[in-house]
């Protein structure tokens, strides 16, 4: 039954999610290849055109059998322009209000299961998944819906197969074909048998792997932190999952999920920008070029003249302007006006010319995907978790001030001091020059510390940056603030539908710490080491100050009368070593390196694949053919 023969090559590790796919070789510290969990498809109006045939070579891999698989393009770069290309998500998280009602989240009837199986094999072709009630595209974070969780993961098997092909090809890890290789693949914490069957069919029948092992994400995250037991709080892109892991097994009764994650924070950030009238330009539409050296030299000389002058600024005469233009020479004249349809601005801070292209042939889904990438980066850069007392005051102020946009209009401009100007004061030339120099230095300091500039040169005001910096990350801990931003996002959306408020109220019922409390209560009969540590993972935990704030929130759990007797049994020595924070009776065990928290599941898979007994855990090709997918996976992959 068990084969302990050494593996001919190191196993490959794949950890997938709704946002990215992480791939690498076991034994590595970090994944070698990270790509978005989307594929590109020809636009519906141009799907029959032969111009798209060069995207994929049929001889590259024998597993590409269907026409839909051949047309898929991966990986996609949100900063690279692609014309006539629609973005299709490979992995989507469906909450309970949109999830199928069949067994284990599968189709509701046998006919639906057979239809889904034919679709996976490509007999019906590939179609973009659309939710029944429409809404945001599924890669926007808020797209998955706002119903009560837990939900299920919907995986597009042809697109997933295309991503695995690309990951192993020359554009990825360059590991060649998967045939005859050993592979470790992550799976959702909630057991989804139809999805496991689809993975087994894809791996053993399409890729012809020799051994495969499926492992829950929470268990892999524990292994990545050098533990076999603990409570894993995974703040992902589309949902947040809190699970209890005991000796490598995920306790199904103690899984708490709610459909809110880092993608929803990005959607809230977009709502704040829309409320302030700020439009986001995708990165692929922005072209930056350095400003001519002669132009920069002339601007510096002009600033020096203004600083040294004893009188107010004087206008340059037309004759002086002509002489400066002649002195610049052909290098400056090379800066021709922008092309038709382009908008041109000058970024003086970086000495660059910014041009925005119209991109008329870019599909709407691809443009929205590029815009959301900019918003996600903005939320990651500006996001900051405050201490609990400051956050409580901020939430109260945000909820009480319904006219915050009007209040921000009265705020004075950055870098401009109230009172008399320097030109109205009497003084010598040195005072005048020093005052103007200090003012310019103050303007530069304010721009550097308070303003954020989008790729197209748009400067965000201090009110917008403050809201994104403090309020948006707080939605993970505050359900009322989450409902406030949900109403803001629904009001900014032109396609608001009936019932959105009810779904928003449902998703705002659960908070991160509340999910931890419910998980601890449900895992009351577990061993002591399971309840002794909490492991935060996922991209939503990368905000500065998140670990300290998470620790403060966990310190309030022992005050709960329902949990006090249970947590008293886990009381002991607190963890003060590297990467640990003492949090009352519950210890927050997390790495100080952001990449290790972000890729904790993949790192755990890399550690598991290095074990000498890994081959004994795997399902072999012979076992798959003898017992079938479900029986073989149930025996080896709990």
UniProtKB/TrEMBL annotation:
Coiled coil: none annotated. InterPro entries: Actin, ATPase_NBD. Residues 109-132, 296-329, 427-442 have a biased composition (Basic and acidic residues). Residues 96-132, 295-345, 399-449 are annotated as: Disordered. SMART domains: ACTIN. Residues 410-420 have a biased composition (Basic residues). It catalyses: ATP + H2O = ADP + phosphate + H(+). It comes from the Eukaryota. Belongs to the actin family. PANTHER family: ACTIN. This is Actin-like protein 3b, putative. It comes from Toxoplasma gondii (strain ATCC 50861 / VEG).
């Amino acid at each position: 039954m068990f084969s302990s023969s050494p593996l001919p090559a190191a196993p490959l590790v794949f950890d997938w999610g709704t946002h990215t796919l992480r791939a690498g070789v076991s034994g590595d510290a970090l994944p070698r290849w990270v790509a978005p969990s989307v594929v590109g498809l020809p636009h519906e109006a141009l799907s029959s055109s032969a111009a798209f045939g060069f995207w994929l070579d049929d001889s590259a891999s024998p597993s590409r059998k269907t026409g839909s698989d051949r047309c898929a393009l991966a990986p996609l770069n949100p900063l690279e322009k692609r014309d006539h290309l629609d973005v299709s998500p490979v992995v989507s998280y469906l909450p309970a209000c949109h999830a199928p009602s069949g067994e284990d989240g599968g189709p509701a009837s046998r006919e639906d299961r057979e239809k889904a199986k034919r679709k996976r094999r490509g007999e019906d072709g590939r179609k973009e998944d659309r939710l029944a009630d429409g809404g945001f595209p599924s890669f926007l974070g808020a797209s998955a819906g706002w119903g009560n969780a837990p939900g299920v993961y919907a995986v597009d098997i042809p697109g997933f197969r295309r991503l695995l092909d690309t990951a192993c090809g020359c554009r990825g890890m360059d590991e060649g074909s998967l045939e005859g290789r050993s592979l470790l693949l992550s799976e959702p914490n909630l057991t989804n048998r139809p999805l496991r069957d689809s993975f087994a069919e894809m791996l053993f029948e399409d890729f012809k792997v020799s051994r495969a092992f499926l492992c829950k994400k929470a268990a892999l995250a524990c292994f990545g932190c050098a533990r076999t037991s603990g409570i894993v709080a995974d703040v992902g892109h589309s949902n947040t999952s809190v699970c209890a892991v005991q000796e490598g097994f995920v306790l199904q009764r103690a899984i708490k999920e709610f459909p809110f994650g880092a993608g929803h924070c990005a959607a809230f950030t977009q709502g704040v920008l829309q409320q302030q009238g700020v439009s986001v330009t995708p990165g692929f539409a922005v072209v930056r070029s350095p400003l001519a050296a002669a132009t920069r030299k002339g601007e510096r000389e002009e600033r020096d003249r203004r600083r040294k002058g004893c009188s107010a600024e004087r206008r340059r005469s037309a004759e002086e302007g002509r002489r400066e233009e002649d002195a610049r020479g052909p290098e400056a004249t090379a800066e021709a006006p922008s092309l038709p349809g382009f908008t041109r601005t000058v970024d003086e801070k970086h000495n660059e010319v910014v041009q925005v292209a119209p991109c008329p042939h870019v599909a709407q889904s691809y443009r929205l995907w590029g815009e959301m990438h900019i918003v996600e980066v903005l939320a990651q850069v500006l996001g900051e978790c405050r201490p609990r007392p400051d956050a409580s005051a901020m939430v109260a102020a945000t909820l009480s001030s319904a006219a915050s946009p009007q209040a921000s209009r009265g705020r004075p401009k950055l870098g401009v001091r109230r009172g008399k100007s320097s030109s109205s004061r009497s003084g010598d030339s040195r005072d005048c020059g020093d005052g103007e120099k200090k003012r310019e230095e103050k303007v530069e300091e304010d721009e550097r510390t308070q303003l954020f500039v989008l790729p197209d040169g748009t400067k965000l005001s201090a009110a917008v940056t403050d809201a994104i910096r403090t309020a948006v990350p707080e939605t993970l801990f505050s359900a009322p603030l989450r409902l406030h931003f949900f109403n803001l996002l629904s009001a900014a959306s032109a396609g608001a539908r009936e019932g959105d408020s009810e779904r928003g109220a449902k998703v705002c019922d659960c908070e991160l710490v509340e999910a931890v409390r419910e998980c601890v209560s449900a895992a009351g009969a577990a061993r002591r080491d399971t309840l002794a540590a909490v492991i935060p993972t996922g991209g939503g935990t990368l905000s500065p100050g998140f670990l300290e704030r998470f620790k403060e929130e966990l310190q309030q759990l022992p005050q709960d009368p329902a949990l006090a007797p249970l947590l008293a049994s886990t009381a002991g020595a607190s963890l003060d070593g590297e990467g640990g924070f003492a949090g009352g009776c519950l210890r927050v065990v997390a790495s100080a390196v952001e990449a290790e928290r972000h890729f904790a599941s993949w790192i755990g898979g890399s550690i598991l694949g290095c074990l000498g007994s890994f081959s004994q855990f795997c399902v072999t090709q012979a076992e798959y053919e003898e017992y079938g997918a479900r029986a073989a996976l149930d025996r080896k992959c709990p």
